[in-house]
Specification:
Length: 358
């Protein structure tokens, strides 16, 4: 441990290296941080850090295929630069070669366990959203088959962005009734609970996605409840509801009476957009103690400008005011180690009823 302390395990490069590993970022990304941590070299001390703080603590059931790929690349990187590889790394890789002979077989579970670590800068210490440890770790069971109809169990860029938005501006959500449309893995809901939203209601139209979401809430020590049988006044519980957009009734939508509605990457399918706009309108339309009424925040990657324009046209027809906050809102970068995620690719929209706009 003395060698590790000499390297400085509180250094940003160490935090980025470990966080990237726990988030199952591509091996090349973790290795790049390992080189930064070692001052340009993957030294024996760096290898010991990787061994003790990453590999030895990993559950093969959830990360076996990733561990095998990472160790193969890591060992090759050390050897190609003339370094000496720790015996523990060789032995562990040999063990994986035997026990994980076929990566496809090891993926039969189709789920992996990722840890998303929100890293707060030193100047954030003591603020509402910053924990004493300087980071918030969220465990998420995710799909590895994003292209095979399991999209609801994948982590999408806009959910990462919306989570950073919540942690950047906790005062917008603290003590508010928050409702998320299309909650996926539940990351946004976990962050809402963390910043002390008075009620958190998560919804999705897919039952398998809802089941996975409930697992993730429990992994992060949150109680889950059914809206039909549990009181919304239980602030220690995150409520999960099945809400297919096409069949949601106006009475049902109004009954949720949220202060804030959220959605991440929900503007994507033109055929779904009329239903989505109707759902948003229903959630925004209810008696509210605040004269400005409820508000919705939608984060989205614009993959097709025609789809976005269609959504905007439908929103205007429904008398919704959509404001693009992308340029005027500075969202903190709490995920600097996620090279696969780019804040700049995401747009943030604020939506409210036209009748509530002064």
């Amino acid at each position: 441990m003395a060698a590790e302390e000499e390297l400085g395990i509180s250094a940003p490069s160490y935090l980025h290296m470990v966080s990237a590993f726990l988030a199952l970022e591509p091996p090349d990304v973790v290795i790049s941080f390992a080189r930064d941590f070692g001052g340009g070299y993957i030294t024996e001390s760096v290898q010991k850090c990787i061994w003790h703080h990453c590999i030895a603590k990993s559950d093969v059931k959830w990360k076996g295929a990733y561990l095998k790929r990472f160790l193969k690349k890591f060992i090759m990187e050390i050897e190609s630069s003339g370094g000496v590889v720790l015996d523990e790394l060789y032995e562990q890789y040999a063990s994986y070669m035997i026990s994980l002979q076929d990566d496809d077989a090891s993926k039969a579970n189709s789920r992996v366990l990722k840890t998303i670590s929100f890293l707060f800068p030193n100047e954030s210490y003591g603020t509402v959203s910053c924990p004493k440890s300087g980071k918030l770790e969220v465990q998420l069971q995710c799909s590895v088959n994003m292209l095979e109809g399991d999209t609801g169990c994948s982590i999408w860029p806009s959910s990462l962005f919306l989570s950073e938005f919540i942690l950047s501006f906790p005062e917008l959500f603290a003590n508010k009734r928050c409702f998320e449309v299309g909650s996926g893995v539940g990351l946004v809901g976990i962050c809402l609970s963390y910043v002390k939203a008075s009620n958190v209601i998560l919804s999705d139209g897919d039952l398998s996605t809802l089941a996975n979401m409930k697992v993730n809430l429990e992994l992060n020590h949150l109680s889950t409840g059914n809206i039909k049988s549990d009181s919304l006044e239980n602030h220690d519980m995150v409520h999960c509801v099945c809400l297919p957009w096409e069949s949601a009734s106006e009475d049902n939508l109004c009954s949720f009476a949220p202060d804030v509605i959220l959605g991440a990457d929900i503007i994507y399918n033109p055929s779904c957009l009329p239903h989505l706009v109707r759902v948003l309108t229903g959630l925004l339309t209810h008696e509210h103690p605040n004269a400005s009424g409820p508000v919705a925040y939608i984060a989205s990657v614009v993959r097709n400008i025609d789809t976005l324009n269609y959504f905007l046209a439908l929103a205007e027809k429904a008398k919704l005011i959509v404001t693009d906050l992308t340029e005027s809102t500075e969202v903190s970068n709490f995920l600097p180690y996620l090279r696969s995620y780019n804040q700049c690719s995401i747009r943030l929209f604020r939506i409210c009823l036209a009748s509530k706009v002064a």
